[in-house]
Design goal:
By secondary structure, the chain is an alpha/beta fold. It is built from ten helices and nine strands. InterPro entries: Cyt_trans-like, Pantoate_ligase, Pantoate_ligase_C, Rossmann-like_a/b/a_fold.
Length: 282
């Protein structure tokens, strides 16, 4: 198995991609923060269906972490990540350090609204999506990618990026890839490794609860009734719930029931020190 080529500076990255362009290649990027798992690898597989060459960025972006969040302890497993990328034949790993991404004197950020102000993760992580939007814009401009693939697990993020690309006339096609799950339903996440054995046993309840809330809404319950039942169920299981809400799947605006759909249920809840997010369609 050949090793994945890497680039650590923008000049290196662009030189490699320019060579691909001269060959007429269509280029995709899959942005990640590393600590890769099967969910990330599935994004690469989706990207390969839409492009000739796939760049995977590995960068733990400090601007999307708030005060007291887990930036310092976020897992960094570069050698393991590169080995995993080789198994799915990714073409290039873009692995800048903070100085390469935010050089001395960097002083421009993007401020986002719309889905980024939906009262979901933005209500609990102020400034988070401004940081996401800034780094994603840089990645799209650095690579000039034709396609960018993001996981639906981070559903609000996906909608923020779609609006970002529309609003700023960024020509990359933004593709959402289905959430990959463990056999018991837990959405794959780099943060799952923080869970204790006891917490890991409880964690699938978050997905089961979403399924139950969706079933209640399809059976005629209002969004308020169904999500309240879901919150109570999660709290009974030991979660501390940040939110469990029904939103319009495209705009993330509040909805009162399935007639106002398409509807997406989104949840964020904590088990111990670990914050888990998930979502499902209704």
């Amino acid at each position: 198995m050949s090793k994945v080529q890497t680039a650590t500076t923008v000049a290196e990255l662009r030189a490699i991609i320019s060579g691909w362009r001269r060959e007429g290649a269509r280029v995709a990027i899959t942005p990640t923060m590393g600590a890769l798992h099967e969910g990330h690898l599935s994004l690469v597989e989706v990207a390969k269906k839409h492009a000739d060459r796939v760049v995977v960025s590995i960068f733990v972006n400090p601007t999307q972490f708030g005060h007291g969040e887990d930036f310092e302890r976020y897992p960094r497993t570069l050698e393991q990540d590169l080995a995993l990328l080789a198994t799915v034949s990714a073409d290039l790993a873009w692995t800048p350090d903070v100085a390469a991404m935010y050089p001395a004197g960097f002083d421009t950020t993007i401020k986002v609204g719309g889905p980024a102000k939906a009262g979901l993760d933005d209500a609990h992580r102020p400034g988070h999506f401004d940081g996401v939007a800034t780094v994603v814009t840089k990645l799209l401009l650095q690579t000039g990618a034709d396609v960018a693939v993001f996981g639906e697990k981070d559903y609000q993020q996906l909608q923020v990026i779609r609006q970002l690309a529309r609003d700023l006339n960024i020509p990359a096609e933004i593709i959402g890839a289905p959430t990959r799950r463990e056999a018991d339903g837990l959405a794959l996440s780099s943060r799952n490794r923080y869970l204790s054995a006891e917490e890991r046993a409880k964690a699938p309840e978050i997905h089961r609860t979403l399924q139950d809330v969706a079933a209640r809404m399809r059976a005629g319950a209002s969004a308020a009734e169904a999500t309240a039942a879901g919150v109570a169920r999660l709290e009974q299981a030991g979660f501390v719930v940040d939110y469990l809400l029904a939103r319009h799947a495209l705009t993330l605006a509040p909805v009162s029931g399935v007639a106002e759909g398409p509807v997406r249920l989104l949840v964020a809840a904590r088990l111990g020190a670990t914050r888990l997010i998930d979502n499902t369609g209704v």
